[in-house]
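A note from the maintainers: we've had questions about how concatenated examples are separated. There is no special marker in the raw files; a new sequence line simply starts the next protein. For clarity in this README we add a label.
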Amino acid sequence: MAARRKKTQEVAKIPPRDDTYLDARNLLQYIFRERIEGAPEPTPRQYDICDTMQTAAWKVVFGEDRPGYPVIANDNRIIVEAPRGEGKSVIAQAIACWALNWNPKLNVFIASASEGFAGQFSTAVLSYIQTLEPLKWLAPVDGARESVLKFDVSCAHVGQHPSVKALGISGQLAGCRGDLIIVDDVETDENSRTEAEREKGMGRMNEIGAIRSGKRISATILLGTPHTEESIYNKLIKRGYKRTIWPAQYPDAAWMADSGKELAPMIAAQMAADPSLMGPSMRENAPTDPIRMGDGFLRDLEVQMGRSAFDMQMLLNTTLSDETRYPLKLRDLIVTDFGADGAPLGLQWSNAPEHLFTGVESLGLRGDYLYRPSIAGAEIGKFSGGIMTIDPAGLGHDMTGLCITRLLGGLIFVSYIGGMFGYGPNNLKAICLLAKKHGVRTLVPEKNWGGGMFGHLLIAAVRDHYPECAVDTDFDTKGQKEVRIIENLEPVMNAHRIVFSAQALIEEMRPLPGMSEERADSYRFQKQLTRITKDPKCLAHDDLVDAFAMGAQFWAPHMAHTTQHSSQQVHDKNVEDQIRAWYRESGQEPKAHRAGHNSVTLNFIKRGLAARR
């Protein structure tokens, strides 16, 4: 009798709730207005995602399918696939609050890639419950569990399983239970790079299936953005999950042929009403959410991420064509003439036919060629230093790859690319002499190779043949080689911030002694650059492109400025150097307050200097 009276009292505590928030989209709007700075209103795409989630969770909350809506999937297991940065987590947090608001006896289980990310999710849910007026009645009462990873809401029956529990996907899942399960971005770059890691992720998702409550009704909502062609989200479709996809731009015919059945109905309806939205190239089509992710934003993001990552995580395309399967293109490079001391400033990339570089045969895929810049400034900036990155030869017929790079005006300049077979004493000496010829004072070998043995051999050779040179033995490379090479090169190449010496490319294509051109083909830099994919061991030889990628990786921390800003800095330094030289030649000592002369002043000084001479 006492137990029945206690239960009655608990039920009586549930206050009247505002029917406005019977639709989760209205609660999402309230959360945005009260808590999301700079975004007072969800976008139509975010409302649509929210509506899909609440339809999947409706039966768990109210015990029946949502009136007037078709059942999304058997067992209410869905995958919400939307672009990176869409706000999927915030929307799902609103869904968790909405579900508890209308059924406080639910058990909500949250899983993410790590316990830290899962904790951020549950912390937001608890914060909304404690601070937002429509949800305050759910705040945990005295004596209830109240940690951010595990808490009970008011009016819940306190039992073995809390109202809300958050856990990393690799945590102890056995014994957990949930009526509403939200799995937030469990696929990441780090845990999806190899087949073994992906299989481990699928195993953890199998355990998620066991968390579903033993009751007849439960729902699982997966939030995801694919990070690999072999995404676990693709595999989960075969296990009964229903996926809905909201790409960042309207699809083209190829995307529709592969994934059209999973396109969000809202976007499909827009395309049916206006067929012109499906242009010939998805990258050139209009954005599906111009408020949150407009065309300018997406183009900048494509440059930052690189094309293949953009296709995967923004266009949500895991079926890669040759265009994206081979992401590194010759046409993204700039080819020009420069020496060991400096290079022209103000280079402008071009792929116009009149700027085609004809100095060497192009080994790129069909339609992919090398080009000279459309504009090269008359002013020459001076290099302040340079490095030679070295990928030591392994076993068999590998080369020791060598690449000399310098940084100027926000661009990486490549003055040498090539290699030599083996790494015996004669080759080590040749490396030192090559560095000396190009005025390079720092050699950067791959640290991981041979447990650092090559670095020790190189230090000994430098001591004998080029003692003024330093060897950086701390430069580290990690992860699958092919993925690392592409991720280091693609963003900077897509931004057209790598300039090759025309002479370096000509010399690299010279015949290899004792080797037919057919056999030499796989050793060519152009071939390695344009045929590398993220598949392990996709190239017979990768020595030159690996050395090149190491150079890009080395300079990446120093490339924060735009090319225009960096070029202006170099120009200002040139002006200041010339002014100081004039002062010294005129018998005066330049003073600090004279720094900062503009080009007009410089021209006046130049005329005076010429007259004096």
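[label: protein 2]
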Amino acid sequence: MSDNMDKTADLVVTEGQTVELEITDMTDVGKGLGRLSGLAIFVAGAVPGDKVSARITRLKKRYAFAETITLLEASAARVQPPCPYYKDCGGCSMLELSYDEQLSIKHQNIITKLERIGALENPTVRKVVGAADRIGADGGQIGQSKGTRQTVMTGQTEEPGQPEQLESAGGADSEAFESMLRYRNKAEFAVAMTSAGPLVGFNKRGSNKVVDCTDCLLQKRATMAAANAIRELLQDKLISVYDARHGKGFLRGFTIKVCEGTGEMMLIFTGTAKQLPNAEKVIYTISDAIDAVSTEAEPYFLQSVVVEVNKAKDIREPATAYEVVAGANTITDITDDGMKFEISAPAFYQVNTKQMSKLYAKVREYACLKGGETVFDLYCGIGTIGLSMAADAGMIIGIESVKNAVIDANRNAVINGIVNARYYTGRAEHVMSRLLDKEDKLFADYIDENAPKIAILDPPRAGCDEALLRAVASCEVDKIVYVSCDPGTLARDIKLLCELGYEFVEATPVDMFVATMHVETIVLLSKLDSKKYISVELPMDDMDLTSAESKATYKQIQNYVFKKFGFKVSNLYIAQVKEKCGIKERGNYNKSKNIDSKQPVCPIEKEESIKDAFRHFQMI
């Protein structure tokens, strides 16, 4: 390691200075990563393989931010982004990269997280199932669409051909790339009113500024037609935009859901009242705009209009009510394998319908059902994963904390004629063990106690609650199939599951989010054979404590940070960074006893200083 690694940033560069950098990696938010004398510099507008001249915009103790001034040498994987809003919006952070390179970066990112956070050595990560890949019902890939380079990727090895220099993001086969885009079946739009008129689009990355967007290449044409019609309605003052400063106005944003299998669309207005202003005129205007772009290939129509009532100061707070203004309470989608799913306004549904079928096929492959197994579908939502496996299982048991989602799941079981599925409302860590306890009134006597047990975990981006993972392990399920949209929290949870007696087998990523850094990953874990292991009890004094306990105390970490960086860090910040790094704690005594309390989040510069301390004490 270079001696310069110990230098602080101000000894290497100064704010406003222009430097030349070779970009070697990409961050989770899509910035290029380069190094100067060991100093990490995050560069906006740069991609791996670029050589750039960049100006330092912000300087921290251990790293710096910069913006690209001149592209000195373009990466072989660089392409011309087809979106005119690309630089302003920031939503599609990988649109300047060829699709092969996008998949390669995502694949490596997963491996890195599993090794560094999950403490796995040479984890087997299969090649990413891309948007151009075709996949069989059993989850096996059976080929690729025209125009996609063949790549073999197993574990950490990749044997590609030479990358092509493409003129546009679609390469020579722009039609094939077009089919990879416009994949989202859900769009959440932000709105604002300015002196120049209304803005309808998306929040710029890292800010509340709304980028006015008349066409997003990730959205259906019908979705954009509806959004543009709403902009005109705002311009004509048929709907008012909510003014947070004065607490007046109606519209705070809106969401559009699209069902590819049926063409049905749902429009959800997030507003401050139950009544939609000028409802009849508004609805007919939007419906006509959708009909105008509807084609035989994309026969979309407005099926449901809902008002999501949210009067909270923070729009991210849960809605207080959902009022159906026109049409049906739900919309219905039909998947490639013939499954029907009713989707309500608050329901979660995978945003990429075509890739969802590939994702679920891989889950079924990993579950490898022989018939008769009991499948626990945890974080089940509206039941999509479990119901897609019901034909091969003995019983599907779904557990979900959101009551409306459980109602949707039960209804979806009925409309698909599935009788071997049961759904429960509650936290899985509480409900699952009770269902298996013969002494508990919730005991499910319909479960075959001799049947193998499989758990499907599909948590939100924050990952699984530790209590849930411990509950799953205590129920001694034979196999776990974990579906994750965040490699970092996935790796953290896998580390704990391995400590609880499970073995990481392999992972397969599925590219659900083309042109962005996000990726879905399916992981297979199997229970270790307890007969091959001996349980030994040791006195605490003889035990080899975890790194977090044996390497350094909170006080030692605080002293190190203060001495090296000149500022203080709290116990809470240290605990938050430990959790991010997958360092197990005996107990978090820094959490508020009030579960509804809002805790401060560790700033990035303090997070990096704490991580530096962890490395110093060999904790990571």
